[in-house]
Amino acid sequence: MEKHNFDITALLEAAFLYREKAYAPYSGFSVGAALLTQDGSIFGGCNIENAAYSPTLCAERTAFAKAISEGQRHFKALAVVGGPQGQAPVDFIPPCGVCRQWLAEFCSADMPVFLAKSMEEYQSYTCAELLPHSFSPHML
Ligand code: THU
Fold first, then answer.
1. CB 9: neighbour CB atoms within 10 A?
2. What's the CA gap between 53 and 119, in Å, rounded?
Protein backbone atom coordinates (compact mmCIF):
# COMPACT_ATOMS: atom_id res chain seq x y z
CA MET A 1 0.00 0.00 0.00
CA GLU A 2 1.28 3.46 -0.92
CA LYS A 3 2.13 5.90 1.86
CA HIS A 4 0.60 9.38 1.90
CA ASN A 5 1.15 12.26 4.29
CA PHE A 6 -2.53 12.57 5.07
CA ASP A 7 -5.32 10.58 6.69
CA ILE A 8 -6.96 8.47 3.98
CA THR A 9 -9.44 7.11 6.53
CA ALA A 10 -10.90 10.57 7.23
CA LEU A 11 -11.19 11.27 3.50
CA LEU A 12 -12.95 7.97 2.77
CA GLU A 13 -15.28 8.45 5.75
CA ALA A 14 -16.30 11.86 4.39
CA ALA A 15 -16.98 10.40 0.93
CA PHE A 16 -19.21 7.72 2.49
CA LEU A 17 -20.96 10.30 4.68
CA TYR A 18 -21.70 12.65 1.78
CA ARG A 19 -22.95 9.77 -0.35
CA GLU A 20 -25.84 9.63 2.13
CA LYS A 21 -26.83 13.15 1.05
CA ALA A 22 -27.19 12.28 -2.64
CA TYR A 23 -30.25 13.62 -4.45
CA ALA A 24 -30.63 10.92 -7.07
CA PRO A 25 -34.34 10.15 -7.56
CA TYR A 26 -33.92 9.41 -11.29
CA SER A 27 -30.93 7.09 -11.45
CA GLY A 28 -31.19 5.68 -7.95
CA PHE A 29 -27.39 5.80 -7.98
CA SER A 30 -25.85 7.72 -5.09
CA VAL A 31 -22.33 9.10 -5.18
CA GLY A 32 -20.24 10.81 -2.53
CA ALA A 33 -16.96 12.64 -2.98
CA ALA A 34 -14.48 14.18 -0.56
CA LEU A 35 -11.81 16.65 -1.51
CA LEU A 36 -8.79 17.28 0.70
CA THR A 37 -7.31 20.78 0.51
CA GLN A 38 -3.68 21.71 1.00
CA ASP A 39 -4.57 23.28 4.40
CA GLY A 40 -6.09 20.00 5.60
CA SER A 41 -9.78 20.81 5.20
CA ILE A 42 -12.15 18.29 3.68
CA PHE A 43 -15.03 19.37 1.41
CA GLY A 44 -17.68 16.76 0.73
CA GLY A 45 -20.16 16.56 -2.12
CA CYS A 46 -22.93 14.38 -3.47
CA ASN A 47 -24.59 14.00 -6.84
CA ILE A 48 -27.56 16.31 -7.40
CA GLU A 49 -29.92 15.21 -10.16
CA ASN A 50 -32.55 17.13 -12.06
CA ALA A 51 -35.86 16.22 -13.71
CA ALA A 52 -34.40 17.56 -16.96
CA TYR A 53 -31.52 15.07 -16.48
CA SER A 54 -28.66 16.93 -18.17
CA PRO A 55 -28.32 19.64 -15.47
CA THR A 56 -27.29 16.87 -13.06
CA LEU A 57 -24.21 17.66 -11.03
CA CYS A 58 -21.78 14.91 -10.08
CA ALA A 59 -20.58 14.48 -6.51
CA GLU A 60 -17.04 15.42 -7.48
CA ARG A 61 -18.00 18.76 -8.99
CA THR A 62 -20.26 19.52 -6.02
CA ALA A 63 -17.25 19.06 -3.74
CA PHE A 64 -15.06 21.22 -6.00
CA ALA A 65 -17.68 23.97 -6.22
CA LYS A 66 -18.00 24.07 -2.44
CA ALA A 67 -14.24 24.24 -1.92
CA ILE A 68 -13.49 26.74 -4.67
CA SER A 69 -16.31 29.05 -3.61
CA GLU A 70 -14.74 29.10 -0.14
CA GLY A 71 -11.49 30.33 -1.65
CA GLN A 72 -9.67 27.01 -1.79
CA ARG A 73 -7.38 26.48 -4.78
CA HIS A 74 -4.86 23.83 -3.75
CA PHE A 75 -5.87 20.21 -3.42
CA LYS A 76 -4.13 17.09 -2.16
CA ALA A 77 -6.52 14.22 -2.82
CA LEU A 78 -10.02 13.24 -3.88
CA ALA A 79 -12.07 10.21 -2.80
CA VAL A 80 -15.14 8.91 -4.64
CA VAL A 81 -17.65 6.28 -3.61
CA GLY A 82 -20.92 5.29 -5.25
CA GLY A 83 -23.45 2.65 -6.09
CA PRO A 84 -27.14 1.80 -6.09
CA GLN A 85 -28.93 3.79 -3.39
CA GLY A 86 -29.26 2.11 -0.03
CA GLN A 87 -26.68 -0.53 -0.85
CA ALA A 88 -23.00 -0.93 -0.18
CA PRO A 89 -20.91 -0.06 -3.26
CA VAL A 90 -20.53 -2.88 -5.75
CA ASP A 91 -17.90 -1.28 -8.00
CA PHE A 92 -15.11 1.25 -7.82
CA ILE A 93 -16.73 4.38 -9.33
CA PRO A 94 -14.37 6.48 -11.43
CA PRO A 95 -15.05 10.17 -12.14
CA CYS A 96 -16.93 10.86 -15.38
CA GLY A 97 -15.24 12.65 -18.27
CA VAL A 98 -16.50 16.10 -17.29
CA CYS A 99 -15.25 15.66 -13.72
CA ARG A 100 -11.87 14.53 -15.05
CA GLN A 101 -11.64 17.83 -16.91
CA TRP A 102 -12.35 19.62 -13.61
CA LEU A 103 -9.54 17.64 -12.05
CA ALA A 104 -7.26 18.77 -14.88
CA GLU A 105 -8.22 22.37 -14.13
CA PHE A 106 -7.58 22.39 -10.40
CA CYS A 107 -5.27 19.52 -9.50
CA SER A 108 -1.73 18.51 -10.26
CA ALA A 109 -1.09 15.62 -12.62
CA ASP A 110 0.19 13.45 -9.77
CA MET A 111 -2.61 14.15 -7.28
CA PRO A 112 -4.19 10.87 -6.10
CA VAL A 113 -7.85 10.01 -6.64
CA PHE A 114 -9.13 7.18 -4.42
CA LEU A 115 -12.01 5.04 -5.61
CA ALA A 116 -13.47 3.12 -2.67
CA LYS A 117 -15.83 0.20 -2.28
CA SER A 118 -15.38 0.13 1.49
CA MET A 119 -13.03 1.61 4.09
CA GLU A 120 -10.64 -1.24 3.39
CA GLU A 121 -11.01 -1.68 -0.36
CA TYR A 122 -9.90 1.19 -2.54
CA GLN A 123 -7.92 1.89 -5.67
CA SER A 124 -5.74 4.90 -6.30
CA TYR A 125 -5.09 6.68 -9.61
CA THR A 126 -3.36 9.93 -10.40
CA CYS A 127 -5.22 12.68 -12.25
CA ALA A 128 -2.95 12.14 -15.27
CA GLU A 129 -3.80 8.45 -15.30
CA LEU A 130 -7.50 9.31 -15.34
CA LEU A 131 -7.16 11.96 -18.05
CA PRO A 132 -3.91 11.72 -20.00
CA HIS A 133 -3.04 14.46 -22.49
CA SER A 134 -5.59 16.77 -20.91
CA PHE A 135 -6.37 20.22 -22.22
CA SER A 136 -4.92 22.28 -19.37
CA PRO A 137 -4.97 25.86 -18.06
CA HIS A 138 -1.32 26.53 -19.04
CA MET A 139 -2.22 26.10 -22.72
CA LEU A 140 -4.27 29.29 -22.83
N1 THU B 1 -22.19 10.45 -10.98
C2 THU B 1 -21.39 11.12 -10.12
O3 THU B 1 -21.85 11.79 -9.20
N4 THU B 1 -20.04 11.05 -10.32
C5 THU B 1 -19.45 10.34 -11.33
O6 THU B 1 -18.26 10.49 -11.55
C7 THU B 1 -20.25 9.40 -12.11
C8 THU B 1 -21.71 9.68 -12.11
C9 THU B 1 -23.64 10.51 -10.77
C10 THU B 1 -24.38 11.31 -11.81
C11 THU B 1 -25.76 10.71 -11.72
O12 THU B 1 -26.49 11.40 -10.73
C13 THU B 1 -25.55 9.28 -11.27
O14 THU B 1 -24.21 9.22 -10.81
C15 THU B 1 -25.72 8.25 -12.38
O16 THU B 1 -24.99 8.60 -13.50
1. 9
2. 31
Distance from C-alpha of 97 to C-alpha of 58, rounded to nearest angstrom = 11
Residue to probe by mutation, ligand 1, list 26, 29, 78, 87, most atoms within 8 Å of CB: 29
Element of type H or E holding 27: none
* Torsion region of 40: left, alpha or beta (phi above 0 gives left; psi -120 to 50 gives alpha): left
Which helix or strand (DSSP H or E) is residue 132 part of? none
Q: For a pocket test of ligand 1, which of 58, 101, 125, 130 has the largest count of ligand atoms closer than 8 A to its C-beta?
A: 58
CATH homologous superfamily, domain 8-139: Cytidine Deaminase, domain 2 (3.40.140.10)
**pLDDT tens-digit series, residues 91-118:** 999 999 999 999 999 999 999 999 999 9
pLDDT in tens, 29-40: 999 999 999 999
**What one-character DSSP code corresponds to residue 4?**
-
Residues lining ligand 1, Cβ inside 6 A = 24, 27, 29, 31, 47, 49, 56, 58-60, 95-96, 99
Q: Which atom of ligand 1 is nearest to the CA of 46?
A: 3
